[in-house]
Amino acid sequence: MDVLTEVLRAVRLRGTVYFHAEFRAPWGMNIKGGKFANFHIVVDGDCWLSISGQEFLLAKGDLVVFPHGAEHAIAHASDALVVPAEQLLSGRPLGAGSRLTLGGDGPTTKLICGHFEYDAEPFRHPLVASLPRSIHLRRGEGPNPDWIATAVQLTALESESNQGGSSAVVDRMAEVLLMQILRAHACQVGSEPGFLAALTDRALSRTLQSIHDAPEQHWSLDELARRAGLSRSTLAVRFKENVGVSPIQYLARWRMHKAKELLQTTHQTIGAIATATGYQSEFAFAKAFKRMCGVTPGTMRSRDKTAVGHA
Fold first, then answer.
1. What is the pLDDT of residues 173-219, one digit of tens each?
2. Which residue from 79, 118, 120, 286 has the least number of CB within 10 angstroms?
3. Are 28 and 107 in contact (CB under 8 A)?
């Protein structure tokens, strides 16, 4: 499995669409900051986005994501009056099948709005940590612009559908669109340091793939450098510049991500998970897990089962 797909699976990416709305001028909505990664898809028309004192025009077919849940505002005009989203949406049904009409009687902008959720425990993965406050993908940009345009259209059509399962389809389509946004962002940043840049760097990509392919292996910096075709020192410096930690630290953290995933999604014994993540004994694994995650593996598994039982 490729590294990006595996990372997104390990952080348990989940997309949720709030609504498909027709905003008719005049209108303006402020979305306060939070822990979720908000997104907007412009299905038709255009609108203005304001974030951190900067303004951008969003046109038909554009997508914008706020990976860290940054506060922002969207409106029919750059000088429009904006009201809190919770006030504007109060008492209205939300969900992927929700169709709302908001604002006045002027020109219409159609938006699909929602958020992405990912697991930040036991620590935020370098992919998430390295993303900017906002990513704006314009229509026709990215490595697969035609595919993205088609996906946006299909998401809009499905959100208008009353067929069974349409909400689930829309949510999954939103997750697929995020994958495409991340690919496009990787092309935009080029050689700018970050986890996505590491995935496009042949040597660093080999290092990450080696770790992800075999987290149970007792990797040394020497062996990882040999596979990357770099010296130890060059690999160490380049890896930390882009990923934020050393290769060996990343290995330790990725083992914990994998262990947490196995605890949450399988019935493997803790001893089997210890072996699968490179620990020679269950005791050594439990000690490392408690140190890095704050709880024992057994507590983590019991907590997740309790959360599911109360969902």
1. 888 888 888 888 877 776 678 898 899 899 999 999 999 999 999 99
2. 79
3. no
